[in-house]
Amino acid sequence: MTWLLHPHTSAEPPVFVKRLEAATVWKQGSTSRLQCTIKGSPELHTTWFFNNSELSAGGRYSISLKNGVATLEIQEVMLSDSGNYTCEVLNESGCESCSTKVTPLSIEAVRGSVAVLACELSGSSPFEVSWKKNKKRLNTDKKYRIMSQGAVTSLEIHSFESADTGEYECVVSNEVGSVTSKSVAKQKEPPMFSKRIESATAVLGNTVKLQGTLKGSAPITVKWMKDSELLRDDDPNVKMKYENNITSISFSSVEIKHSGKYTCVAENEAGQQKCEAKTEGDRRYQRIIRSAGLSCIWLPANNHTVVQR
């Protein structure tokens, strides 16, 4: 008689490979996402909680678990979405959870525009709603307009200016209790060059880069112009880039046609900023490749005598 021994495999309990960030800030009106990475024996099941209440997929919420990544996505973020979020994962071998705190949501408004703060109403009506700025209660007037429609209450701030920046609170109460949601309002800052672009001279055939650093409220769009004409990506020797607040234009092989005045135009909803610089191809040192070999021609700066070697 022959005995076949099979190794015993035990199911692995769920473990968070990458946990939720300890804290995060969301912007009102955006689509925001919470994600964590999980491993463990199948089948894994996830449940999301907001302030200890279970969330269900549908409406503004999307919930998924794919390739070990658990995701909660919330569309059209409101003030009332700030709070504590928990992801709970379980299988037949165990249960694990991790949490994050979403701090007061912020909005950025352009000077002179109408800024809107919104808060979702949940629970049993009737509700009593009040809005506050820096702990002082607000009323509907020429500056503020308070509205409630369906399950949403909102505060409109007209002709937004620097004096309107600060912390806003929405207090919603019914016979059971009250809930306070907070937000920080900021004024959108126009783009500014914290490090301006400097002119450069390059030997013909060599590389050169014009580069500057920007600051201001995102998103910022950047475009480059040469001698007042918009540059396009049709020259393989020219590359334009904007990344990590650094804008640049680089030339992999400088030619005479690349000499001129370059203007970088940075723009967002709050305004526009320009920075100019020049690039010049230096003719004094020029490489010429011939079929018979390599020849170097030097054109001295003081006269036009040609020395060939």
Automatic annotation (TrEMBL):
It comes from the Eukaryota. InterPro entries: Ig-like_dom, Ig-like_dom_sf, Ig-like_fold, Ig_I-set, Ig_sub, Ig_sub2, Striated_Muscle_Regulatory. Coiled coil: none annotated. Keywords: Repeat. Residues 13-103, 112-185, 191-280 form the Ig-like domain. SMART domains: IG (SM00409), IGc2 (SM00408). PANTHER family: NEURONAL IGCAM-RELATED, TITIN. This is Ig-like domain-containing protein.
